[in-house]
Design goal:
heterodimer; A: Glutaredoxin; seven-stranded mixed sheet; 5 helices; B: 202 residues; mainly alpha; 8 helices
Amino acid sequence: MARYLRYMVPLAIFALLVAFLYRGLSLDPKLVPSPLVGKPIPKFTLTRLDNPAASISDADFRGKVTLLNVWATWCVSCRQEHETLVQLAKTGQVDIYGLNYKDNREDARQWLTRYGNPYVANAFDSDGRVGIDWGVYGAPETFIIDREGIIRHKHIGPLTIEIINDEILPLVAKLKS
Amino acid sequence: MNPMKQLVESTKTSSPRKRGSSNSPIPNSLDFRLCGNDWLTRNLLFSIVLLLLVITAPPLPAAVTLESFTFPTPAEEQHFKDVIGQLRCLVCQNETLADSDADLAHDLRAEVYEMMKSGKSDKEVIDFLVNRYGDFVLYNPPVKPSTYLIWYGPFVLLAIAVLLLIRAVGRQRQVQEPEISAEERKRLERLLGDNAGKGKQG
């Protein structure tokens, strides 16, 4: 028995190493977990994209389950996910708010006219200061916010139909109930 | 510089092939290309010279991408550079905030600059970023349960290795030299003696 153990220990260590490395293969270092998940949304007040005279703030997120999508016209992946957002908006399951991040107001408006507007409202963050408070480090990013204004989930990168169906909608349903 | 010269001389003279002799029908340049050894030596020399140039060259200014922030004293500028040098850019993840040219790094540098200018402490600045981006922004991860493995793991492995080494050495000590009989000893001495004698004669 002791003799077998001699050979089993290195084998076990090797197996452990393989398990760690195998797991590492499917991890993306670009996806940095946000410390904001589980915390209230940051306080902010910004002008609305469609109307510089009107404002939008963190208070608008209270009392309903919402989704905040960070996007910009310079962001290629945002173009890729846009159709998915339009479809999600059509389901009427959740209010989608937008944070137009470091963009040009006119460009962003044209984008919405051209590709469709899935957003209930857009906050216009031209210098990215509010983006920093939300821990945004790239677009697109999507936050799911519960009724109390607590961030429940953050998705980094473009949304797909699969992610909507497997992650977003189940969580939204759970938060609504 | 002398060793360099010697190296050049020696590679010239020790070249195993004659090249560029006047009655060769092949032009010199082609000859070089055909001679694998010469080609290698030339490239090696070139590399060494390049390497020496790189090593001896004056260092480039470290923060090429730094915006023109103004500081009242050089010490404060250095302090600012020290702080952003400890922070990781989330876009180009192998770069510090000081080095990165990513758009976000520009914004965060400006943010850190503003905070420091308004008298915030290093801890406040670092907490500001950690609260938004997580421990990932720190190049020096804090010691906490989730990082115990990376902080203490190597020492645990070292301890295990030392224990195993001690055990292995202890075991080897226990192995006794085999006993030899008086007859064998005599034969051994004779053989050794013979050898010594031969050595002297030769």
